[in-house]
Design brief:
The protein has 63 residues and is an all-alpha fold. It is 70% helix and 0% strand. It has three helices and no strands. It starts with 11 loop residues before the first helix and ends with a helix.
């Protein structure tokens, strides 16, 4: 949960900018996008497998 305490004499625009940064850093936005549509378990596994393959390929090329 993101908490934002508005500082004394802080403009609304500055507070909103700080709030957006906090939300971005906490990963809430990413999580919302991920949960926006239902994803089948097989698609989740496939995406994880492809990510692991890319990571292994990169490690082989660099190492």
């Amino acid at each position: 949960m993101v908490r934002l305490i508005v500082r004394d004499r802080e403009s609304i625009q500055d507070a909103v900018r700080r709030f957006r940064k906090l939300v971005e850093r906490s990963g809430i936005k990413k999580e919302m996008r991920r949960r926006e549509y239902y994803e089948k378990p097989s698609e989740i596994k496939r995406r994880a497998r492809l990510r692991a393959e890319r990571r292994a390929r990169r490690a082989r090329l660099l190492g």
